[in-house]
Amino acid sequence: MAQVLGFGDVTAARERFSSLQSGFAFLDAPGGSQVPDEVGDAIARTLREASANMGALYETSRRVGEIVLEAEVNAARFLGCRPHEVIFGPNMTSLNFMLSRTAGRDFAPGDEILVSSLDHDGGVAPWLELAHDKDLVVKHVELHDDTTLDYDDLRRKLCERTRVVAFAWASNAVGTIVDAQRVCSLAHEAGALAWIDAVHYAAHAPIDVAEVGADVLICSPYKFCGPHLGVAYGNERVLERWRPYKARPAPTTPLGRRFETGTLPYELLAGFNTTIAYLDSIGGFEAIVPYERELGERFLATISGNVTIYGLPGMEGRVPTFLVNVDGVSAAHVAQHMADRGIGVWAHDSWYSLDLYRRLGYEDQAVRLGFIHYNTTDEVDRLVAELDAVGR
């Protein structure tokens, strides 16, 4: 029986991915997704037919300009903003370092940055380095035992010196979701910027930066079937106040382009445009969200008692990303066992979530796995069976 995913069945979507035809089960979506063939084709076609730079009078340059404009429109629609509020860069971490330096030009010694204890270090290290350079203070907002954010602790730590509240919308390690609208509102009450790392969230749920009240939001298309690229939103009122780090002759309009350094990867922007078209074609997040939730619920309902899940026990308040250990078996052995049987999961120590890692209590490593819309219930069942086998 076909597994329904909005527009039709999952098999039809999977047929658009050469990488999914071998039978290997990619259950490693938290580390990056597989890419539809049409995205790779768009990248290759751009390198063949639009290898130029912007501003010239000939055809290939005009094609490049069209690709950039289309990418800004697509990113704006994906994020819920306006095209001139979109900024492209090589990846989330590079954009975060660049934008945090830009924001911090007028920060004073003793000013404070709040970060979440759920955060990937790509959302923390830029602020720590800025604090080192400018004698700022970085504080972590605490978590409850179930890995949900302690909003009361956030409220207590906000003060007149708080300049930025930076947080991950969803944990890349345990999948826990933060109430972004609530955090942004609290940040604004204190006169601080609300700064969101949406890298992990963006693959699993729709984003509306206006609805949640974000000032800055950054994500990465490689998490949702696109190329390796960074995409940022900056609120117009915020961007207009900032002085960019920029080569002087480079264009400064539209607004978001002030903050793009060097030549953009036009071929990757073409791939991004095709990624958005692919997501639209399968029904978008209206189809993706309930289907992925079904996969997560099936996993949680069928795993054996010798598998420890860190964080929230159910699908409420999380995306379908899970950090687990099998009792009495090392995480590295579990990951190798899975790879030998055609299932992709990872073993690691911190998952770059350094503050969260210290709180979870496991020794050495844990296994991270996660589902995305091209995974199937059969793959979930294979995973559960192999976790049971390695435990025995």
Explain what the structure shows.
It is built from 14 helices and 15 strands. It is an alpha/beta fold. The chain folds into two domains: 4-31 and 284-391, Aspartate Aminotransferase, domain 1, CATH 3.90.1150; 41-279, Type I PLP-dependent aspartate aminotransferase-like (Major domain) (Aspartate Aminotransferase, domain 2). It has a seven-stranded mixed beta sheet, with helices on both faces. A four-stranded antiparallel beta sheet has the order 11-12-15-14, covered by helices on one side. A two-stranded antiparallel ribbon has the order 1-2. The longest helix has 21 residues, at 59-79. The chain is globular. It starts with a strand and ends with a helix.
Q: What are its keywords?
A:
392 residues, Aspartate Aminotransferase, domain 1, alpha/beta, four-stranded antiparallel β-sheet, 2 domains
Q: Looking across the biggest beta sheet, what order are the strands in?
A: 4-10-9-8-7-5-6
**In terms of per-residue confidence, which ranges show pLDDT below 50 for 5 or more consecutive residues?**
none
Which structural class do you get from the secondary structure elements?
Answer: alpha/beta
Number of domains: 2
- Count of distinct strands: 15
Instruction: Report the order of strands and helices.
Output: EEHEHHEHEHEHEHEHEEHHHEEHEEHEH
Spatial separation of the terminal alpha carbons: 32 Å
Using only CA atoms, what is the Rg? 21 Å
The largest sheet is: 7 strands, mixed
CATH 4th-level superfamily of the largest domain: Type I PLP-dependent aspartate aminotransferase-like (Major domain)
| Whole-number mean pLDDT | 95
